[in-house]
Amino acid sequence: MTRTPVRPFRSREWFAAPGRADMAALYLERFMNYGITPAELTSGKPIIGIAQSGSDIAPCNRIHLETVKRAREGILAAGGIPMEFPLHPIFENCRRPTAALDRNLAYLGLVEILNGYPIDAVILTTGCDKTTPSSLMAASTVDIPAIVLSGGPMLDGWHEGELVGSGTVIWRSRRKMAAGEIDEAEFLRRAMESAPSSGHCNTMGTASTMNSMAEGLGMSLPGCAMIPAPYRERGQIAYETGRRIVEMAYEDLRPSKILTKQSFLNAIKLLTAIGGSTNAQPHLNAMAAHAGITITPEDWQTGYDLPLIVNMQPAGQYLSERFHRAGGIPAVLKLLVDAGILDGSVATCTGRTMAENVAEARVLDADVIFPIDKPLMEKAGFLVLTGNLFDMAIMKTSVISEQFRARYLSTPGQEGVFEVRAVVFDGSDDYHHRINDPALAIDDNCILVIRGAGVLGWPGSAEVVNMQPPDALLQKGIQSLPTLGDGRQSGTSDSPSILNASPESAAGGGLSWLRTGDVIRIDLNQGRVDALVEADEIARRKGEPAPPIPPSNTPWEELYREKSGQLHEGGVLEFATKYRGTGLKVPRH
Ligand code: FES
Ligand code: MG
Fold first, then answer.
1. What is the pLDDT of residue 17?
2. For the chain, where do the domains classified as CATH 3.50.30.80 start and end?
3. CB 224 within 8 A of CB 348
């Protein structure tokens, strides 16, 4: 059967090179050296790129060394030609000073590869936190047909009969160790057992969240996000993804036809239902910015009023393997579409609408996926905050503990309003050096504030805002204090921090003039956070030297700082968002 693509394949410009037999010969010859035949490359079949995000230093995504084998078979079976190439590695836990630096770097690299080589469509292999947004950002810039193949989470972790989830177990064990309940050896055992197999974090941390967002945006096959990495279904969906991207190449089904304002609003709502990571806020804003779509604080607020229905750590109890068996993202999408919360008419990579994709999905475990009218929690989204310290910050309300609610949010007649004394740290070294200093006299009337942790300050914006109280308070049973910062925190954290405060201190935001001892009034009803400092005093402090930040240590750090915007706009390379559809033009010889 001869098929005609809706748009001529761009790879023809290389391998058929009209009028330039010399160039075609040059382009063709070197692919021979690993066994591709000229007949294949000149057959008119689409060349399908596979952006390989896994490696030994990207262990969360290393399963893709296997999944791509099945993806290649799917591509071949459907009449395409696979060509695998590396994506700049991004490993959340290990990269210093922070993996956030690499999101924009991997983005830049992928754009150049997709533009500069004879690639007609691409499989984006994703897993660890930022591999999903960087890949989708690039897909929008280039705008050739693209599909996400998630690597999947690890199996559920168990320690002495108790579920232990990635990251979350670290934060919880850290508190237990400071309170003297466990020793270092026990800490390490609990951490090891949270990681029982290949795959990415098994909590609803940033990795599970962003792969769920890709599925919710319609950019991966239904069910793709939550299949555990070692399951046989992972290989099967890799094969189906390979088959499907070939069809998408023929159909010219490009990201710009799928990623719309409506699909991003759907993603924000899905995020609340699953109890997703606070990192989704900058990442969704970044993906939208590269798709030419603006997401406002008001758009974020539309997610706040919705319920949490997925019972997964850190907001709930279970981990991703169990969530997958409960029906995963398709079951959640089905509930949200049926309730009229999501727009089911949006286009997806299957060529069908979201509603059509999930028509048969069902909830198979009522302990894990709750009904919308009997949720785990009402009004469980991100509260969008503003005030004299920043234009925008968020608070993840689904992780507010009973203890925190009782202490800070339940003053009769003043529910949701509290005042606290600021203790300000300049970066995480300062926090670690001073948090147990008795001179700070930290008690439960304090808020721990960290600055110098944003896009410019760190650089990259670090996951440090979920600061734990001094050991002395933990030993008294005080599990958490209010925290505030211009950095981020791990999606696996159960801290109800006020975070992603933007603009950051290093960009002259309000945290730059805050001083230890200032009183901060937090009004969750009005969505306000204000330091109770007089205007003339604020003006005076603005004349003082800015808080210190470290110098750039690499060329990329310097360039990143020069070109990246603030977190409330996604922290993207701002000049880059004007480039869209670059792959529709073919570069010169
Ligand atoms: Fe890579 Fe969590 S550290 S997925
Ligand atoms: Mg993280």
1. 85
2. 382-543
3. no
